[in-house]
Amino acid sequence: MISTAAAPAALEELSFYIGRAYYNYKLLLERTLREFGLDRLVTPGMGHLLFARFEEDDCIIRDLAEKTRLSFPTLTVMLRKMEKAGLVRSRRDPQDGRAVRIQLTPLGRSIRPKCRKVLARLNSVLGSGLPMEEVIRARKALARMIDNMRRDEESGG
């Protein structure tokens, strides 16, 4: 028989906190995208790719994966959605026919100011009441967790 006394302790595990954070973040993001009129173009998960393109447009997918720290399967799915929404276009690299370049469309470039406002709102909510040192520690801890998950994926874990 399974002891119910262990259940509350299990819900205090890191993986459950990450899961709760993910779902609450996703709801916050969807609500904020609606507030700024971006919900018909941008979906959760696209932000990494949009902001990477805002910083440096027209790059090779491999470089985009490194910059965003997203896995290739995730990246591929998101780029297809972004192409379908008319935010980016892809084309073969003229110097290396095996490589694919990703570039913002005029529509993709036009939403930059609103995307920056969405980002500011999200960061304001997420960091509310936290000293900058805690925000920095949280970013570093999350970055390590992301690296751990990527290594596990790459090793077939």
Helix content: 55-70%
Major beta-sheet overview? 3 strands, antiparallel
Q: Give the mean pLDDT.
A: 91
Overall 3D shape: globular
Strand order of the largest sheet: 1-3-2
How much is the radius of gyration in Å? 18 Å
Helix/strand order, N-terminal first: HHHEHHEEHHH
Which residues sit in consecutive blocks of at least 5 with pLDDT less than 50?
Answer: none
Determine the N-to-C terminus distance: 30 Å
Structural class assignment: mainly alpha
What's the total count of β strands? 3
How large a portion of the residues is in β-strands, by DSSP E?
5-15%
Number of helices: 8
How would you characterize this protein structure?
By secondary structure, the chain is mainly alpha-helical. Helices cover 64% and strands 8% of the residues. It has helices at 6-10, 14-35, 47-55, 61-68, 72-84, 106-110, 112-127, 132-154; strands spanning 59-60, 88-92, 100-104. The protein has a 3-stranded antiparallel sheet. Strand 2 and strand 3 form a beta hairpin. The protein is globular, with a radius of gyration of 18 Å. It starts with 5 loop residues before the first helix and ends with a helix.
